[in-house]
Structures are given as C-alpha cells and as structure tokens.
Amino acid sequence: MADDQVKLHGSWVSLYSFRVIWALEIKGISYESIEEDFLYNKSQLLLQYNPVHKKIPVLVHGGKPVCESMIIVEYIEETWPHNPLLPRDPYERALARFWVKFVDDKGPAIWRMFKSRGKEHEKAKTESLEMLRTMEQHALGDKKFFGGDEIGIVDIAFGGFAYWLGVVEEVVGLKLFEDQAFPRLHAWSNDFKQVSVTKRNLPDPHRMLVFYKDVREKLLGFTSS
Amino acid sequence: MEENKVTLHGVWASPYSKRVELALKLKGIPFEYVEEDLTNKSPLLLKYNPVHKKIPVLVHNGKPICESLVILEYIDETWKDGPQLLPQDPYKRAQVRFWISYLQQQSSGQLMLIIPPDVMGSITSDGETQEKASKELFEKLKVFEEGVKEFFPDGTPCVDNNSVGILDILLVSLFGAHKVQSEVLGIKIIDQEKNPLLFSWITAITELPVVKEIIPPHDKLVAVLHTIRNAGLKSPAALP
C-alpha cells in the first residue's frame, strides 16, 4: 500500500545509511533499498527529497521524506515502538541522547583524519583518540552494550564509526583503536559485530577497502599518510 | 532528598542556558538557578558534566542532564503540564528536529555567550570576513525560512504562551537579541524586509511575557558584546 511503503535512499559505503538499516531490521520493518551514488552522481529523487543537504540517508515513508540518520532512527523508534531502541525512563533516555550527540559531534574527526594530511591530519587523529578515550571511560560502564543487554540507539550511532574506523586505519596506515588502550570498547566492538542484525548487515570489508583507498587517492594523490 | 528538586546551572549570557530557563518557566517548573563562573568552574559543575565541563546542566533529584537540546527533550518527557515542546506526531517531530539540527549545525560550541555561532565569524573580524560570514548567515536563514513555511499555512507565525515549542525556544535563544547584535556589529542580522517571516516570528516570541522576563537587559547585552568583540578583534584565541 502506497501509504505504508518504506524506502531507504542510501549507500553500501555509508555508515550513516547502516544506522537506518539496523534500526529497520531490529524492528522487522520491510523496506525497499535504493542505492545512491552519493559521491559522484546523486539521483533527482534524492535532490528532491533532501534539497537542503542533498545527502543520504533519506527514509521515505508513505511518500514523505525524513533526513539525517539519527533523526530517521528516532522517527523509526516513534513510529514503530516495538523492540525499543531507547529506554523507557526519561533520565536514561536523556543519557542515551547525550551519547548519540557526542558520537555525532566527535565522530567526524575520523573523516577529517581520512581526508587530510599534515597538521590537519594530526589534529584529527588527536580528536579521534580523545573521543575513543571519553567513550571508554564514561559511556559504557560495565554494560555489554550501550543499550544494556541488547543494542540500542547509542550502539547504532557509534557502531558505524567503530567499524568504519577499522577501514580508515587500514587505508591511512595507522592504528588508533588498540585493544590494550580500549579494552571495554574492544569487547563491545566484537559483541556488536556478532549481533545477528549487524552481522547480516555490514558491508564487505575488502570491498570497502578498495573503495576508500580509491577515494583517498583521488583526494590526496596517495593512500598512506 | 526533596521530591522533584530541580536546579539549573547556567550562565546569564548564554543562549544555551536561556533555552532551558525558558522551557522550565513555560512548563511552570519551580527551580533553583546557579550562576556559574566559566573562568572558575565549580567542583559541582565538573562533577555533573565531566565529559564537556559546560553549562547548562539540569539537575533533577540529584541526577544531572547535560546538553541543552537533550535537556529540553527531557523536560518535555518528564513534565506533561504546560505547552508540549515537541509535536506529538512522529513526522512533525522529525521535521522540527531537522530544523533544529540545521540551525545548530555550525555551532562552534566554544563560546557560551549571546552571539549565535554564525555571527561569531562576523564579530571577531572586520571587512571581508565579516561580510562573508554575514552573507552565509543570511543564506542559511533564507533556507530556514523557506523550509519552515509549511509550519505556517496562512503565512504568519502565531505564537502565544500556550503554544511555544522547541523551535520557538531555539530561535529566541539564538536570535532574540538580534537588535543588540545588529547595533554592535553595524550589520542587520535579521532584516525585516529580507527575512519577513523570521522577523515577525522572532518579534512575536520576544513579546511574550515569559520571554521578556528572561532576556537580559539591553545595555548589559550591548556591553558584553562589545567586550567580546574587542577581545576577539585583538586575538580570537583569547576568547573563552
């Protein structure tokens, strides 16, 4: 039925896309996946649905577009409340939203590290490490996942960055996310990749490596820093 | 512990602080206000917000909540009396969150003072950079105006004490003092002719008694802005 139809304009290389996929999959929502070539050739539909930012992901529900990955995730949560991604208690919800914001504010340092060299690269490296340290120290506690025993909204927000960081590390030729330095996050990362929803929905690392190596070459003219 | 004890740690000139104050007042929530000195942060603040060490922090029954927008959603979910800050409908909520994110997007996050982050570029520099920054701000506001037009089907914003929402709060925190900013900077931040919807919207919000109560006095704001501008022109790095 046109009213209920869910479509996701996204890309297999985008962690932001995967946040939405994980949310939809956890809730068991059927959706049509539309692959966008967001770097080199955006579709007319995408530009129509997201005229302000012209970015993926965009969720289209009953013909109405929702933009910005974490806004989409909250929309999914509120529209299909079963298998909740947020806790019930307002205080716990506030804590979850705090960490989602933190991830979104600090996470892009990883991209800046990927896209740059020299001073800018070093600065972004420091910021990425700081983010990891703060999350290691303050965000997880003794829990298995940020959401507790099951993955929740913070796991969805951060999961992509953690996975993509591995690709960036390999392309750039450095190692930030060391297990000794980040034991909690490392354990979390392994658990996260084993969850059935994420296990079934993560891009092939080899394909990603090839893709991102190419992007970096085009940006900087070489791969390692 | 006192049931429902609410404390707000803030700074009088901070737009982020003002947002929370406004939300609390709109909902009729009694609270204690603690003015923090950002050059000498209290041990309590550092304990409540170890990650960012920033204001505002709302403390409810001893539990701290940080980040102004997170606090606003918390307030909306915890106290159901008074205006609903966010709409009920999930799609409308997504739209409101989108525009809030848009307005916030260039937040430098560092200057917790009355200048909206977009205007920061304007006040710490002269000539070309100021013009560029003010052009970018105008373009951004134009996109915002076009985008929110669908919230106002008959063209004019209707704001009253019972219908103030999170977007109104955000706008007044960022641009409520636009006349002061315009006065100090010598450029029009919100132009009545070029941004008619925004101008009338912000004017309507700032006319509300509850908003008038919390907006700092004109002269005090002018003085602070001048101080920042002078410090910024000498050395932007010196700004707190």
TrEMBL record, chain A:
CDD domains: GST_C_Tau, GST_N_Tau. Residues 89-222 form the GST C-terminal domain. One of its GO terms (cellular component) is cytosol. It is found in: Cytoplasm, Cytosol. It is an enzyme of class 2 (transferase). Its EC number is 2.5.1.18. Its main location: cytoplasm. Residues 4-84 form the GST N-terminal domain. The keyword Transferase applies. GO terms for molecular function: glutathione transferase activity. The keyword Cytoplasm applies. Signal peptide: none annotated. It catalyses: RX + glutathione = an S-substituted glutathione + a halide anion + H(+). GO terms for biological process: glutathione metabolic process. It comes from the Eukaryota. Keywords: Cytoplasm, Transferase. Is involved in the conjugation of reduced glutathione to a wide number of exogenous and endogenous hydrophobic electrophiles. Belongs to the GST superfamily. This is Glutathione S-transferase. It comes from Ziziphus jujuba var. spinosa.
From TrEMBL, chain B:
It is an enzyme of class 2 (transferase). Residues 4-83 form the GST N-terminal domain. GO terms for molecular function: glutathione transferase activity. One of its GO terms (biological process) is glutathione metabolic process. GO terms for cellular component: cytosol. Its EC number is 2.5.1.18. It is found in: Cytoplasm, Cytosol. Pfam families: GST_N (PF02798). It catalyses: RX + glutathione = an S-substituted glutathione + a halide anion + H(+). The keyword NADP does not apply. It comes from the Eukaryota. Keywords: Cytoplasm, Detoxification, Transferase. Residues 89-237 form the GST C-terminal domain. PANTHER family: GLUTATHIONE S-TRANSFERASE, GLUTATHIONE S-TRANSFERASE, GST, SUPERFAMILY, GST DOMAIN CONTAINING. Is involved in the conjugation of reduced glutathione to a wide number of exogenous and endogenous hydrophobic electrophiles. Belongs to the GST superfamily. Tau family. This is Glutathione S-transferase. The lineage of its organism: Eukaryota, Viridiplantae, Streptophyta, Embryophyta, Tracheophyta.
